[in-house]
Please model this.
Amino acid sequence: MLSEIIVLGLIMISIGTLLLFLAIILSILRKSPQGKVEGGGVIIIGPIPIIIGSSQKVSFALLILSIILVALLIILCTLEWWVS
Model:
């Protein structure tokens, strides 16, 4: 069971890294003429997300993403507790 969780974690890290590199490559190839850049970040401490964004649109997208991630974390921890 523990080895399956480790493999799942490594797969998720690999997918995240791949998505990051894909986003960088696409942003380089796209070359927006306006030069407007928006960004943000999420810091999750336990079940509490701290959201930092440059606009309301970015902050809202990060809020939805953090809710999904926290729900996934709670589900996985509950399943781990339930199974053992």
